[in-house]
């Protein structure tokens, strides 16, 4: 039976990455959303809620994916490759939210 490695989750570092991802999601997509009128009126009068919820949510998901990719792949991949993988996952999350909003 193979020996499994145990990697505890550092909750403080994870919280920092989630909050940072949320802030980046708002800061990067905020200027594109400010002043726009809704193209699809299916949300009715509450159309402005969707752009306020999705970018922070997907930013937090991207931040947590960045944390997990750099934390759990650090024993299998070289360190110079960890940052681009995490940044690519974060950018993919932000791209998805720009398509959804």
Question: Could you describe the 3D structure shown?
Answer:
The chain crosses the membrane at residues 12-34, 46-68, 80-100. Keywords: Membrane, Transmembrane, Transmembrane helix. This is Potassium transporter KefB. The chain is mostly helical and 101 residues long. It has one domain (11-30, 48-100). The protein is built from three helices and no strands. The protein has helices spanning 11-33, 49-72, 79-100. It is elongated, with a radius of gyration of 17 Å. The model has no long low-confidence stretch (mean pLDDT 79).
Give the helix/strand layout.
Blueprint: H1 11-33, H2 49-72, H3 79-100
Brief account:
This protein has helices spanning 11-33, 49-72, 79-100. It is mostly helical.
What is the chains' assembly state?
Answer: single chain
- Head-to-tail CA distance between termini: 48 Å
Question: Helix-strand pattern, N to C?
Answer: HHH
Task: Specify the biggest β-sheet.
Answer: none
Structural class: mainly alpha
Instruction: Note poorly predicted spans.
Output: none
Rg over alpha carbons: 17 Å
Q: Which word captures the global form?
A: elongated
What's the structural domain tally?
1
Hey, roughly how much beta strand do the residues contain?
Answer: under 5%
Question: What is the overall number of helices?
Answer: 3
* Total number of strands: 0
Mean pLDDT: 79
**Percentage of residues in helical conformation:** 55-70%
Protein name: Potassium transporter KefB
Organism: Sphingobacterium corticis
Transmembrane segments: 12-34, 46-68, 80-100
Keywords: Membrane, Transmembrane, Transmembrane helix
């Amino acid at each position: 039976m193979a020996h499994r490695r145990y990697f505890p989750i550092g909750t403080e570092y994870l919280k920092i990455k989630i909050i940072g991802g949320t802030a980046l999601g708002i800061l990067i997509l905020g200027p594109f959303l400010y002043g726009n009128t809704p193209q699809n009126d299916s949300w009715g009068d509450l159309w402005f809620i969707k752009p306020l919820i999705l970018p922070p949510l997907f930013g937090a998901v991207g931040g947590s994916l960045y944390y997990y990719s750099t934390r759990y792949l650090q024993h299998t991949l070289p360190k110079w490759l960890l940052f681009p993988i995490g940044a690519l996952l974060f950018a993919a999350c932000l791209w998805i939210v720009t398509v959804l909003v």
